[in-house]
Write a structure and sequence with these properties.
Blueprint: E1 3-7, H1 12-23, E2 27-32, H2 44-47, E3 57-61, H3 67-77, E4 81-84, H4 91-94, H5 98-118, E5 124-130, H6 153-172, E6 175-181, E7 184-185, H7 194-206, E8 213-215, E9 221-222, E10 225-226, H8 227-238, E11 246-248, E12 254-255, H9 256-266, E13 275-277, H10 295-301, H11 309-320
Parallel strand pairs: 1-2, 1-4, 2-3, 4-5, 5-6, 6-11, 7-10, 8-13
Antiparallel strand pairs: 9-12
The structure holds ligand G4F.
Length: 321
């Protein structure tokens, strides 16, 4: 039985990855922050299953900004594979809290790499990098060779972390990989990301629980995929004979308007009757032309995004109903 350790296990990707790895018969260890909040709703169905929790799934309290705790967990668990998904992941918020974003996302990853370097047994690391490392790139779609040009604190932190993953691979021979992941969504997406925000609002307006939806830039375009495809890609990246970096993306761009059309269309409403734009949700500096070329992931891993954008937004909206 292989043993995996996941940082960020309670998030959207962490919860789907946990289910995926349990399905592959892994022993799964999740790292959780010790906070006063016990909101682990995405994993509740697994915690309440005595055949899983405490037998095949384990949680450990540790923190990326408290290296001793994390080192202790690493030495105790001795994972074959580490999936590093934790971090402050909201781009807009990173303008408000740049220091803690960089501390957790950039320095947190470096601390983890240092610990892995000291481990007595070899392990494999997957790092959840982001399309935000490209910012406003010189070419579109982007490949693994497109230069990094981040335009927000979150993107800068991810660029640092992703490059450190490369440095530790080349300088120390560690099996460390980046998945350069474009936007990926699901009914478990956090409520302040635009897809979930829109799907939730469409359902609430339909049910008379909300009067209007306030958004930022509705012409913004992104390459939106399905989180369940992406966790499969993370696993495939770590099963390769050699460590490498891969773009995980659909290769297709959609706009916030497209999400509005689909979500409000699902509940039989016209979005323009309910949506207002507010500069409060505009970003001081907006990334642009972020479309990924997943060609390398397809050629080398056999990975491709299988879910359709239209089905995803409909599923997310119906889940809110
Ligand atoms: O849903 P978003 O907040 O996602 P964003 O900023 O693209 O970041 C997500 O994807 C990245 C991968 O490329 C991850 F690295 C990152 O951790 C995160 O998962 O915003 C999507 C777009 C943006 O252009 C934003 O300006 O939607 C636009 N938008 C327009 N109105 C809005 C809103 N975004 C949010 N969150 N809220 C709005 O009201």
């Amino acid at each position: 039985m292989k043993r995996a350790l996941i940082t960020g296990v309670t998030g959207q990707d962490g919860s789907y990855l946990t289910e995926f790895l349990l399905g592959k018969d892994y022993e799964v260890h999740g790292v959780v922050r010790r906070t006063s909040s016990l909101d682990r709703s995405r994993l509740k169905h697994l915690f309440s299953n005595p055949a899983v929790y405490g037998r095949q799934l384990f949680l450990h309290y540790a923190d990326l900004d408290d290296p001793t705790t994390l080192r202790r967990v690493l030495f105790k668990v001795k994972p074959d594979e580490i999936y590093h998904l934790a971090g402050q992941s909201h781009v807009g918020l990173s303008f408000e809290i740049p220091e803690s974003t960089c501390d957790l996302t950039a320095m947190g990853t470096l601390r983890l790499l240092e610990m892995i370097r000291d481990l007595p047994q070899p392990t494999r690391l997957f790092h959840a990098a982001s399309s935000e490392i490209f910012g406003r790139p010189s070419e579109s779609p982007q490949t693994e060779l497109t230069p990094m040009l981040p335009v927000n604190p979150y993107g800068c932190a991810k660029a640092f972390a992703a490059q450190m993953v490369v440095v530790y691979r080349t300088a120390f021979g560690l099996f460390t990989c980046n998945g350069i992941m474009y936007n990926h969504e699901s009914p478990r997406r956090g409520e302040n990301f635009v897809t979930r925000k829109i799907c939730r609002a469409a359902a609430a307006i339909k049910q008379g629980r909300l009067k209007e939806l306030v958004l930022g830039d509705i012409d913004a375009a992104r390459d939106w995929g399905d989180a369940r495809d992406f966790v499969r890609g993370m696993w495939m990246i770590l099963q390769q004979p050699h460590a490498d970096d891969y773009i995980l993306a659909t290769g297709q761009a959609h706009t916030v308007r497209d999400i509005l059309d689909l979500a409000f269309g699902t509940v039989g409403l016209k979005w323009s009757d309910w949506v207002r734009q507010d500069p409060r949700f505009m970003r001081p500096s907006e990334s642009a032309h972020l479309i990924g070329n997943p060609g390398k992931a397809f050629a080398k891993l056999g990975w491709r995004a299988e879910h359709r954008f239209e089905d995803l937004i409909r599923e997310m909206t119906l889940a809110e109903m």
